[in-house]
Amino acid sequence: MEENQLQLAVKKCISPEMEAVAKQEGLEPELIRQRVEDGQIVILKGRMNEKRVVGIGKGLHTKVNASIGTSSDVCDVEHEKRKARIAEESGADTLMELSAAGDLDFIRRQVLDSVSMPVGNVPLYQAFCETIRKHKDPGKLDPERLFDLIEQQCADGIGFMAVHCGINLFSMERMRYQGYRYGGLCSKGGTLMIQWMLTNQRENPLFEQFERVCDILKQYDTVLSLGNGIRAGAIHDSLDRAQMAELVLNCELAERAR
Fold this sequence. Notes:
CATH topology: TIM Barrel
């Protein structure tokens, strides 16, 4: 198994990807390596062109992400491929593929084949879409299917993945204690996961088995993005108990992931 960027950085090895980021940013390769080791920089790779890398983090230029994806109203694979190409031609550095309708495996692979820039996604979307189609109830999601999808999407070439690990029973209890929110929940993945937890009276499997998530992403050198499932949807709710609980937990999870 090839070593990923973090493993190479910890071993004091400067990878071709680190050299490429250094050249793009006008910095010394050793500085890039050191900041990758320290968890201050991540390097995203595109599947179609592994030489196409994007560095994100301390001391690097601001990067632009574009988001695309099908919905229940509009589901056209060619349309999504066209949007992806236009985003890349217009200068986007990364792409989020957020489809929620249609053949999600086929759409993802078609989009990955259409661009050279790194592509990210949210595995909860496909997991819950499949569950709702089959059972009409997101509470019937099988956690094992979720982990299978995470690995499948990484194997397809997803370069970075937003995973909602910071929602747990403790953060949900903070929301209950608070008793209200003007803006409610505004994260689709977060809302569905909370519904699953309430229905099943169980801990979030992405939090409960966080090391398993990390092991999968580590194997494929996929960058972990810790999703914010309890982020505020209204100014009044900003930095309330529930959001702060998730932010603190995500910081702790980031340290564990390193």
